[in-house]
Design brief:
Layout (H helix, E strand, L loop, with lengths): L16 E6 L12 H10 L4 E6 L7 H4 L9 E4 L2 E4 L1 H11 L8 H31 L6 H23 L11 H10 L12 H12 L1 H14 L4
Parallel strand pairs: 1-2
Antiparallel strand pairs: 1-3, 3-4
Helix pairs in contact: 1-3, 1-6, 1-8, 4-5, 4-6, 6-7
Bound molecules: S-(P-nitrobenzyl)glutathione.
Length: about 230
């Protein structure tokens, strides 16, 4: 059971975890929106959660801005605690429940380093690619800019690929660092860039093979799968 340990005879109720996600993800069920990484973390540590869908209109309205100052998803609620930023949410989950962080404080610090590397070193050029494609696709210079942005992704993935080598995970056991890195890398697949790095493609596939990832993916698919 997920009951909080009773203390001094008080039987506390389990606190329901509520996350927000797109009412309907623009990716049609590919699991690329950032609620998937939070779902995955919760599945890895075995915590049940509920999802509050947010419509495109509601995202930027006062009600949601109380939960997320920038009007984005995901958010995380647990009792009085409200969090935003997928990295901070996954970190909180990993700190609170066993399964995503190692015991050794140095190894844990390195896992957190990989989480930051995922969101602040690897993810930015990947986000730029989406910007060129979708937000700037109709600009006259979009075609010229595309190879530059792709090049920046390739630069990062080349060095990440070298570092990973033949290892199963980035630093020993699977950790929240791998969860974040794999979630970020998944967004390069449709561009074909991931396939240029067979060890990274295999690393991502190992992540997707984890039962917790499969449950997270299936849960978002149930909401987002659209009849084409
Ligand atoms: N740094 C924040 C975090 O990590 O939590 C970024 C949050 C963020 O950008 N959320 C996006 C959002 O709410 C959803 S994930 N966007 C709404 C808006 O900008 O108004 C980004 C995303 C969107 C769509 C796809 N897709 O369709 O493939 C993939 C990823």
């Amino acid at each position: 059971s997920n009951l909080v340990r009773p203390r001094k005879g008080i039987r506390r109720q389990p606190m329901t975890i509520v996350i927000t996600a797109f009412e309907l993800s623009p990716d049609g069920g590919k699991g690329l929106a950032r609620d998937t990484r939070v779902r995955w973390a919760l599945e890895e540590v075995g915590q049940p959660y509920e999802v509050r869908p947010i419509s495109f209109e509601a995202k930027k309205q006062a009600g949601h801005l109380k939960f997320h100052p920038f009007g984005l998803i995901p958010t995380y609620e647990e009792g009085d605690l409200v969090l935003f930023e997928s990295g901070a949410i996954v970190l909180h989950i990993a700190e609170k429940h066993p399964g995503l962080f190692p015991e050794d404080p140095d190894v844990r610090a390195r896992a957190i380093t990989w989480m930051f590397a995922a969101v602040s070193t690897v993810e930015p050029p990947i986000l730029e690619l989406a910007t060129v494609k979708f937000a700037e696709g109709d600009k006259p210079w979009a075609a010229e800019r595309m190879p530059l942005v792709r090049g920046r992704i390739v630069d990062r993935l080349t060095l990440l690929s070298d570092r990973l080598g033949d290892s199963e995970w980035l630093d020993g056991e699977f950790s929240a660092g791998d969860l974040m890195m794999i979630s970020v890398l998944l967004r390069t697949r449709s561009s074909g860039i991931l396939d240029e790095f067979p060890n990274l493609a295999a690393y991502v596939a190992r992540g997707e093979e984890r039962p917790a990832y499969k449950r997270a993916f299936a849960a978002q698919l149930k909401i987002n799968a659209t009849v084409q």
